[in-house]
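Q: what sequence does this backbone want?
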């Protein structure tokens, strides 16, 4: 029996206090979901944080998790984001081996992807890139032959397009 696995993005507004992250992530792990990406940060209200959770799994189980998340004391609001109606971004820093022969090619690739050069040494270039996961993976694919020395990614952040917003009910 083939399982229907796909990536899902869940956005949750949570109380900004100790233990919340552990309770939310524990709910996913108890159900056998591996969290592909998890980002958390304060919202415009410092007592509330937004969690963006990217997971791969079966839709019917994810629906149960979203319902259970909504019942947690620390969770204010939660919903799965529709890929067709949300903006998804990630930031990546990548340090590439780039001697003076490789440097022009690395700079050209970075330019094509609108990546910013944030550090340069005699043997390396570090670039910062922002975009969707596919764009960042494409950049990495072209930079790999030069030698990736270090890589750091923020994880996915996402917001719904237009007037639809996940907010704290007053």
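A:
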């Amino acid at each position: 029996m083939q399982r229907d696995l796909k990536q899902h993005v869940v956005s949750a507004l949570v109380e900004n206090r100790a233990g919340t992250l552990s309770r939310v992530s524990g709910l996913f792990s108890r159900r056998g979901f591996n969290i592909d990406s998890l980002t958390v940060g304060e919202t415009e209200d410092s007592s509330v944080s937004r969690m963006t959770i990217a997971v791969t799994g079966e839709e019917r189980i994810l629906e149960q998790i979203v319902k259970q998340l909504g019942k947690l004391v620390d969770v204010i609001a939660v919903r799965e984001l529709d890929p067709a109606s949300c903006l998804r971004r990630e930031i990546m820093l990548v340090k590439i081996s780039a001697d003076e022969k490789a440097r022009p090619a690395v700079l050209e690739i970075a330019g094509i992807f609108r990546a910013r050069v944030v550090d340069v040494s005699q043997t390396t270039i570090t670039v910062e890139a922002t975009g969707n996961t596919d764009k960042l993976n494409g950049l990495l694919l072209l930079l790999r032959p030069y030698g990736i020395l270090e890589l750091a990614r923020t994880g996915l952040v996402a917001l719904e397009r237009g007037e639809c917003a996940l907010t704290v009910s007053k």
